[in-house]
Amino acid sequence: MTKQTSPAAELHPVLSRLGFTQPTEIQRKAIPVLATGQSLLALAPTGSGKTLAFLIPLMERLDTQARAVQLLVLTPTRELGLQISQVATQVAIQLQNDSDRALQVRTAFGGQRADNQKAELLKKPEVVIATPGRALELLEQDVLQIGSLQALVLDEADIMVGMGFEAQVKSICDFLPKQIQAALFSATESEGQSRLQNRLVHRGAKIDVRSTVENESVSLQSENLLAAENTSSINGSANSTLHQTVVVAGGQDRLSALSNLLDSIAPNVKTGIIFCQTRESVQTVSSDLREKGCSVAALSGELGQIERATILRRFKSGGLKYLVATNLASRGIDVNDLSVVINYELPSTPQEYIHRSGRSGRAGKPGWTISLCTRQSREFLQGILKDSEIKLCPFVAAETQQLSLNDTLNEVNSASVEKIQFKSSQSFQRSFHPCRNCTGSCQASHERSLQSQDQKHGH
Fold first, then answer.
1. Is 56 helix (H, G, I), strand (E, B) or coil?
2. Measured over all CA atoms, what is the biggest interatomic distance in the chain, rounded to whole angstroms?
3. Helical residues (DSSP H) of 36-77, grouped into ranges
4. 3-class DSSP state for residue 111?
5. pLDDT digits over 210-244, tens only?
6. Are strands 181-186 and 241-247 parallel, antiparallel or unpaired?
7. Strand order in the sheet with 393-394
8. Alpha carbons 374 and 371: distance in angstroms, whole number
9. Rounded to an integer, what distance in angstroms lies between the CA atom of residue 351 and that of residue 189?
10. What whole-number distance in Å separates Cα of residue 354 and Cα of residue 384?
11. What average pLDDT does this structure show over 94-110?
């Protein structure tokens, strides 16, 4: 595999018509490569604009006169697939305006009626976006015919492997024509993903913009572009996503700690996602918050497609402030102005952390990722993120001075602050470092003051 080092491309006309004033880093580098017909492995952060980076050059190369499926995009979740299909439809409209081409975009996802999908595929659309299980099912039934396929895209390939789709993707590869352009897009690397890239793109180009993407803001002049293509960085730097931890003291009720945390950040939060590891935890947390008057809904894998779609629609429209979810919600969910991601229970891998965090701090806007930890689990979190270039900071609340999230981001990057321990609601409220412009000089006296208060109140 060759390392791609070609110079950045100019703004593509389709990007311009969609409202962009400049391409993102992955778009600058990937569009010229894919436009030449090369296969590609692209490593880019979540929310970096990669959907348009592969759709534009690949859809431009399609032949509407062929009346056959020529581009197949595989995605790990229905939610992500639906967003890609919406962006693809926008691209198809722009291409039709440019050259009178009427590209047809169709979807094939599990959890939905197969009869309707079969009927749509019989119309021979040029572009199909599908989940691996449903795509393989339709291929085996000879409903999805890809003998004329020009390009295959695996979007979020790392998550696809992590969710157990590697075997299905390999089976799908058995149906591919001998000459095929393949593109793998991913935010992280894994062993399973390496096996897929060796099979599909071992002679292609490689682009890695994970360490170079920093706060790529997008200027939009149109309402047409969907939120799925908002851009951001997940690198823990100021003015992007701030990664913080709240250390919960031993024996402390985690639900109470979460409630106190939500109270403290309320002035700065429009919407947020609270992640749990199990369905049982999702139900427990959502029920507790609902009883406390919080605008919240639960999202986990046992819900039907209609229920999930209804909840997501309410959340995106502002009808819900918080979504309590399993990792199901860490992929393919884009919400404008999502302020905070809270890890009620820690993810088990760096990939999970990165993809959860990718829900906030998009479009160059500031965002929080806050993790509830014990002292031991904080060390575990630091361990799994040691190679990710993500810096974990202690939590600082700004609500006592009504600071904005931008102020908080700048404060944390300039201040030396204490770790927070939830000993009681009272100590939670007083244990924030209050000095907005402190550079650490008052830290010792601040700690002595807290110790004195603890002794006085018997804590």
1. helix
2. 82
3. 50-60
4. coil
5. 765 433 322 222 222 232 233 233 333 333 678 88
6. unpaired
7. 296-299, 322-325, 271-275, 338-343, 367-373, 241-247, 393-394
8. 10
9. 8
10. 11
11. 83
- For the beta carbon of residue 318, count every other beta carbon within 10 angstroms: 13
Locate the DSSP E strands across 279-395. Answer: 296-299, 322-325, 338-343, 367-373, 393-394
Phi, then psi, of 374 in degrees rounded to 5: -85, 175
From residue 100, give the alpha-carbon distance in Å to each of 65, 103, 222.
12, 9, 22
* Residue that has been written with the tokens 């060759």 in this structure: 2
CB atoms within 10 A of CB 54: 25
Core vs surface per residue 332-352: b (16+ CB within 10 A) or e: bbbbeebbbbbbbbbbeebbb
Report the amino acid identity of residue 106.
R
Concatenated DSSP letters for 427-440? Answer: HHHH-S---TT--S
Residues 6+ apart with CB under 8 A from 139: 146, 172, 175
Residue-range domains of the chain with CATH: 2-229 (3.40.50.300), 241-439 (3.40.50.300)
DSSP H helices, 141-234, are: 157-162, 166-173, 191-200
Residues whose CB falls within 8 Å of the CB of residue 316, separated by 6 or more in sequence, listed in order = 335, 336
- The Cα–Cα gap between 182 and 197 comes to 9
The DSSP call for residue 69 is -
What is residue 344's DSSP assignment?
A: S
Tens digits of residue pLDDT in 415-453: 323 333 333 233 333 333 323 333 333 333 333 333 443
- What is d(CA 408, CA 369) in angstroms, rounded to the nearest whole number? 13
